[in-house]
Design goal:
This protein has about 450 residues and is of the alpha/beta class. It contains 14 helices and 16 strands. A hairpin with a 5-residue loop joins strand 15 and strand 16. The protein is globular and about 75 Å long. It starts with a strand and ends with a helix. Bound molecules: aspartic acid (ASP) and magnesium ion.
Length: about 450
Amino acid sequence: MKVMKFGGTSVGKPERMHEVAKLITADPEKKIVVLSALSGTTNALVEIGQSAARFEREKAAEQISKLSSHYHSFIGQLLNTEKAREQALAIIREHFEFLSIILRISFSESLNKDILAQGELLSTKLFSVYLEEQGIPHVLLPALEFMRIDETDEPQLDLIRTRLTELLARYPENKLFITQGYICRNAKGEVDNLKRGGSDYTASLVAAAIQATVCEIWTDIDGMHNNDPRIVKKTLPVEQLSFDEAAELAYFGAKILHPTCIWPTQQQNVPVKLLNTMQPSATGTVIQKSTSTKGVKAIAAKDGIIAINIKSSRMLLAYGFLRKIFEVFEKYKTPIDMVTTSEVAVSVTIDNGIHLPQILKELEPFGTTEVETDQTIVSIVGNEIVETRDVLNKIFEALSQVPVRMVSYGGSKHNVSVLIPSSFKNLTLQKLNVKLFGLE
Ligand code: ASP
Ligand code: MG
């Protein structure tokens, strides 16, 4: 049994949805298909939630009606028969009635999660109507019946496995299952979600839960590229990655995969394939336990980084100093990405500055602090990269005109990261592309 996940753009137009139906029926293997909301829908729902939260009812009503028209024209092109169109209209009516009710009741965070869930509920139900119209047998599995997160928002893989296995056992003859990405229930039983872009995570969790043969992530590019195609002219798809390499790349900014979604498939050793709906025959990228390839694979960049430097002569020969500093970040639930230390100073980076003022206040007793915003982490990732000859040499040659602020080397065998001012990002990615890949 395999898992196939299609993102927002892959289902965002009626003709793309038709294409998805072809792809999922191209082979006879039993499968669970995970769908995102139509592209643009979750953003629209976020905006509707924001308007509702600010009691801007008229604005919310306008946003809802705009989204509703989009769905009406969508089904006009998705479906052919009157019967199917009637069914789809009823679905749209049901979900948009819910959205208009929110304008009349008091807003809460849990209501907002209900609003956000409408996108995936709509996409899967409409797709199901289309499959039925085409005479393609399938079962719609409600994600809210098996996707669960705990009090700390962590998915509960064991529970997901148990529930999903029970559900699947009810349909022993069925070969095609459709379910929603992104949405789940939380520990209180309320509707919740796996955060933006979370449909990849759903796919990975489902694949791990059922021990799938493969977890296919279908998007609109042909796999993970060696560099950011929006910035450098020439990039190449990377054919093979290990789970560790993929995790580093996703975390450090490669846009193709949601960073948290690697661990379930890694833990259960289910290979992940990144494939292109626009070009189904392209090789794409395979992510699996180990790869036969070594050396530099790809470069990723993560913007919006804040560097904090803490300097104190009391750090000299003192123990417990780093712990006390890290505890401040822990208290404010702010993860640290990079760390460098000298005998009298320590620099760390964070990507979330919400609690920065409190953090700086609490760091005061430890010494003088300096903050630099608008920084970018550029990560050079590859299997055993730190043992590959000349890599450091080439990186520093490429960076000769860049004011590098921090370097992280040796923490992982697969990653060398540098912190640079964001204004130097384009230059850095271009220079590295030339030096490391020979791509002008
Ligand atoms: N629809 C959700 C989002 O746009 C989840 C996803 O597409 O992965 O964030
Ligand atoms: Mg996505």
